[in-house]
Each structure stands twice: as structure tokens, then as C-alpha cells.
């Protein structure tokens, strides 16, 4: 069978789904359903605007923290720890055995280490001199 291989800087939702759909089907057939569930914890201003928070998901008995953001004016008050703790508690309630995340921010790295995460891998340096670090925490 012949294929055209094309390098592109365009990825539409349809293009992504053309790859994601069969890959998820393959993985589910091989490893079973992932039971993926989104998880969001939001920091809301007095007007109800979302100004930060945590976004992730649970799947295959693990929590993945994809995004965690605290606005500058709210840093240093333990909010990151509270968000992580809330996400971890929800993950435990969903039957998870641990959590994992990644960061390239040295300050965030120190925060995650403070809250019990351990480094499981590193890559870099990246173009700005920073490294991307993967961490996990077993419950």
C-alpha cells in the first residue's frame, strides 16, 4: 500500500481525531477501557470569572494534572497545595493509586517536590535553557 507522508504545521480537530480515534480504539482493545474522567478545580473571582485552578483527568487508576495556574497576586498562600490536595482526594475517591504531572518551571518544580511529588524523568535543555521534568506521587 502506498502512502503520502506530508509534514504540516496545521492540525485541525478532524485531523487529530483521525489519529486519536483509532489509537484509543487500539489501546482499549489491548488494555481495556481507560475510564477517563475530566477533573477541574477552579479559582473564581468575586465576579465569578475563572482566574486560575487545576485541570486534569483520571484514567487507568492515575490522576494526570495537565494544568495548574495560580495568578501572581494569589501565590504564596498555599493555593497550589490546596488544589493538589483536592485533586488527589478526588482521584483517590475515583480509585486512583497516584498522580503524575510535568513542568518546565523551576518554581513549580519546587512546589511539587514540597507536596510530595518525586522526579521520575527530565529532558532538555529546551531553547530557553529550562528542562521539562516529569514527576509522580504514589498515594
From TrEMBL:
Domain of life (superkingdom): Bacteria
Alphabetical keyword list: Transferase
Residue ranges constituting the N-acetyltransferase domain according to the UniProt record: 5-139
Xref: SUPFAM superfamilies: Acyl-CoA N-acyltransferases (Nat) (SSF55729)
Claim: Transferase is one of the keywords in the record: yes
Example GO molecular function: acyltransferase activity, transferring groups other than amino-acyl groups
Keyword Cytoplasm found: no
Protein name (Swiss-Prot/TrEMBL): GNAT superfamily N-acetyltransferase
